[in-house]
């Protein structure tokens, strides 16, 4: 932990892909001071990580086997978190606001609920000891979390609560129109932003043009948008668009996880480098729904610092844990033929098989087809020459 606390450079973060499992998180103090409140709000909005359907492993205490009791989630629903990675429990409040110097020194009920996690299942009373009295470090951290959420006075929920019935109705009309625009663009896979979104532009992008079109064909929406045209509450900023997209993504994933339920599933994984040269890991699941139909759904994309098998497996575990899916329920895994993916001893396939021998590997059919097309092209002289000439055309300057 100390090596993170001593880092001075700003840690690059992706607010949409923060680790859900408390055992995989970086200390809150390792993030730049300008990012901490944003990260805290994100975790508070998501709530504590409580994978209730997880199969909690047993630990022997003498001759007695004990395990974490999921009923504790109900007793301490606002702060208790469980790490699948470490088989330990953590405190969300203390993770977010326990003073840095007390974490290093292990003060205030010890550091077990923030650092390595608490896993002494035979001593439930330690949870009450951790909470302590009204002036304990835990309760001070809880109060800071509540104060942080109250500071969002200019957020849409706060404004919603502060307005009278008339304004509430107007906000609902405008918000419904905005959400309809976002849903349409997401469903059709269209871009949101335009090259020039100024008021003088002939084409301000799909989102703003669609919103204007909707207002021009609905008098109720047009009246409301005209009333707020000169204010800062038009709900047309890129930040608003992104927040609604994130909400739509969360709702879609919630439905997918509900559809999977406790069923077995397979994973399809691939990694590639994006235009900013960052390695991105994409993961999809394949399962049979309650109607007996084979369903394939994309569930996440995550930036990885390396493409070695250990890093990729950790990223997959984080994505699955985020949605309360267990590696033990995997019955198939499909990747390309690269050594880091299908290696017999140290590939991603082998690492997952070590944890779950029933997760059988199948070479990705799409990559198989690609290899077939490449092989056929190389053995057809006309096609081969076409690609050779095309390559030369792009390789050498025209004035050579």
From TrEMBL:
Q: Where is the TTF-type domain?
A: 64-161
Annotated Pfam families: DUF4371
Q: Which SUPFAM superfamilies match?
A: Ribonuclease H-like
Looking up SMART domains in the UniProt record yields: ZnF_TTF
Q: Which InterPro entries match?
A: DUF4371, RNaseH-like_sf, Znf_TTF
User: So which domain of life are we looking at?
Assistant: Eukaryota
Q: What is this protein called?
A: TTF-type domain-containing protein
Organism of this sequence: Dendrobium nobile
Cite the source lineage.
Eukaryota, Viridiplantae, Streptophyta, Embryophyta, Tracheophyta
